[in-house]
Amino acid sequence: MPTLTFYNLAEEKKQKLVAAAEQEFSRVPVYEASIANIVRQAGIPRGSFYQYFEGKEDVFFFLLNTQAQKRRRTFFSLLEKHGGDIFQTMTEMYAILLQEIPAQENLQFLRHAFLNMTHKVEQSLAEMFSYGDSNEMIDGLRPYIKMSALNTRSEDELVHVMQIIIAVTMRNIMEKFSRNLSDEQAIENYKIELSLLQKGLCK
């Protein structure tokens, strides 16, 4: 994560460095990315970069976590909109993600993240839908989820429900990008899988 020195930078300098990193990670996956390209685009000395981040993976996961936090706000807003219905919420959230990632050039690094998934990347991306450990997940979701509609015996089972839905969502996004599916086909596939889950998880 960024150092205090990074957070103390003037906002314009911070945004310039973030934009340069987003551009580089949108160009290539993180393992092919070049710190030299980031500092050149940001207009800073290479040594300065290491005052802000430990390395390219550090800045990459900072960007990933930042985007996950933004989309988590969208997720909870959609939960409210749909009266706590997790399946309607995830269907709309999925469609939004498919529209946003290809449409914004600086978000292409999210596409690379989905196509080059590791356990750490998956954990960061999953924070779009919740955060923290199991207890924090339950505490965060309890005010929003319509528990009475789910075929669960306890709040602990809600964690497993979310893990299943998130795993299905991640796999569908990966498949969308790896197979270059149209948005319509990707959404249809996702709806079919969510419908199958819904039959087993809802009353």
From TrEMBL:
The lineage of its organism: Bacteria, Bacillati, Bacillota, Bacilli, Bacillales. Transmembrane segments: none annotated. SUPFAM superfamilies: Homeodomain-like (SSF46689). Pfam families: TetR_C_19, TetR_N. This is DNA-binding transcriptional repressor AcrR. GO terms for molecular function: DNA binding. It comes from Oceanobacillus picturae. Keywords: DNA-binding. Residues 34-53 bind DNA. Residues 11-71 form the HTH tetR-type domain. It comes from the Bacteria.
